[in-house]
Amino acid sequence: MLESAEARDDACAHAGELLDALVCATRERANGFTVKGVLVEDAASAALLDQGESVDLLVVGSRGRGGLRSMLFGSVAHAMTEHATCPTVVLRSPQHHEAWLPRPVPSGVGALEDHDGDLP
Known about the structure:
Radius of gyration: 22 Å
Number of domains: 2
Strand content: 5-15%
Order of helices and strands: HHEHHEH
Strand order of the largest sheet: 1-2
């Protein structure tokens, strides 16, 4: 699919605005760390590996897709942990963390049929 130069320029401008906003928000919480944003037009793994050569720490996110999806589509986070030349931290999404939080286990005396409400 061919895209127009105008559509590409608009997409790059929008990506730059998003990046600037994320960098500003991250700098506010960085506690003295230097935060740098670089807009690169390349495959994510290749761009991050290239940038990783000049940084002290690489932080990437993970959607937590799981083994099969990651195997089929590739995992940027996995590629970074395997190939980056600098220390790499993988942050999982809050939704991924919630899936692994302990949940209450129904307990009590009596048969399940005697319960007249929803289980927690």
